[in-house]
Design brief:
The protein is mainly alpha-helical. It contains 15 helices and five strands. The chain is globular and about 75 Å long.
């Protein structure tokens, strides 16, 4: 089984990325053929600052490695190091119906949030389809926000297979209901582009500040509250032990849950949870040359796989003579 997923280096990676995708990917390392990559070409649709993009790419690589991704047990690379993906994107774009892209919520949401509606942003899902189809991935673990993009990739794969003969595996999304949408501190989906995140590697006072800023309602401590609609509870549940979670759930339903205390407890939980990884990340960032070496080696492995698919595609569509 080939499992593949990518992440944008467009800002500090956050606990929504961790539970929605990174942790799931790392857990598949022993049992599957795993493809993990940092999608810097996608990030170009929103980041036009060379230093921010290149530093973000290196930092995202350090994040994954610090969290336990072993580059010898998977293929781990930076998207732009495999230019084959751009060629496949063009070929796929010639059979992607405009209407399919016009329906994408993500494009409409990003434009509504002020990102310039460039052609790249519009065709973002075609590049994502190429990412997936180039490696013949069977399953793609993502958060719920990417479900529609996966449907676009499936549609494009089927269309290509119908027109040119069976070529691509039609990929299945893998969305874990428990962590499909981790809420941000304002209760919307946690996202780098909404400024509402708890970054994975934040620590000390800035982490405490961010946790204390999680929005809660004004229900008095002694009154019952609904845990399901409380974003503090949702975030707390990602880190607390089963027993502690059961206790806190009963404080919510019977009265007695004090948001301030729970936030301080959450601060301790998050600090502990990523303590080891924080140290490892610092080590990786202290040796950027080693990081680059790891990523370039991963790209070589990815390119070998990519070139096999691309040769078949070129032949199927008539780009060989
Ligand atoms: P962001 O929205 O912060 O820019 P990305 O688009 O780079 O995040 O997403 C990388 C991966 O993390 C994707 O699989 C995405 O679905 C997942 N993800 C992002 N935010 C969340 C969230 N709040 N909850 C669950 N998964 C998420
Ligand atoms: N669009 C995805 C996101 O923003 C990132 C991504 C790019 C991706 N290519 C991919 C995810 C291929 C899975 C598979 O989260």
């Amino acid at each position: 089984m080939k499992i593949l997923s990518g992440i944008q280096p467009s800002g500090k990676l956050h606990i929504g990325n961790y539970f929605g995708m990174m942790n799931t990917m790392i857990s598949h390392m022993e049992s599957s053929e795993l493809y993990v990559f940092i999608v810097d070409l996608h990030a170009l649709t929103s980041v036009h600052d060379r230093n921010r993009l290149s530093a973000g790419t290196l930092e995202a690589a350090a994040d994954f490695l610090a969290l336990g991704l072993d580059p010898d047990k998977c293929i781990f690379w930076v998207q732009s190091d495999v230019p084959e993906v751009c060629e496949l994107t063009w070929i796929l774009s010639t059979l992607t119906p405009m209407g399919l892209l016009e329906r994408c919520h993500s494009f409409k949401d990003k434009v509504a949030k002020g990102i310039s509606p460039s052609h790249g942003l519009f065709s973002y899902p075609v590049l994502m389809a190429a990412d997936i189809l180039l490696y013949q991935a069977d399953r793609v673990p993502v958060g719920k926000d990417q479900k529609q993009h996966l449907e676009v990739a499936r549609d494009i794969a089927q269309k290509f297979n119908n027109e040119f003969g069976e070529t691509f595996v039609v990929p299945e999304p893998a969305i874990d209901e428990q962590t499909a949408t981790v809420p941000g501190i304002d209760g919307q989906k946690m996202s780098k582009s909404y400024g509402n995140t708890i970054p994975i590697f934040l620590e000390g006072t800035p982490l405490k500040k961010q946790i204390m800023a999680i929005q809660t309602d004004a229900t008095p401590v002694e009154e019952p509250k609904d845990p399901k609609s409380c974003n503090l509870f949702q975030i707390f549940s990602l880190f607390a032990s089963k027993d502690r979670l059961a206790e806190v759930r009963s404080l919510y339903t019977n009265g007695g849950a004090a948001y301030g205390y729970l936030k301080l407890e959450l601060f301790e939980l998050i600090s502990d949870y990523f303590r080891e990884a924080r140290k490892k990340k610092a080590d990786f960032l202290n040796d950027p040359e080693e990081l680059r070496r790891i990523m370039k080696k991963g790209a070589e492995k990815a390119r070998q796989k990519a070139s096999v698919t691309l040769a078949v595609v070129r032949d199927r569509v008539g780009l060989s003579y």
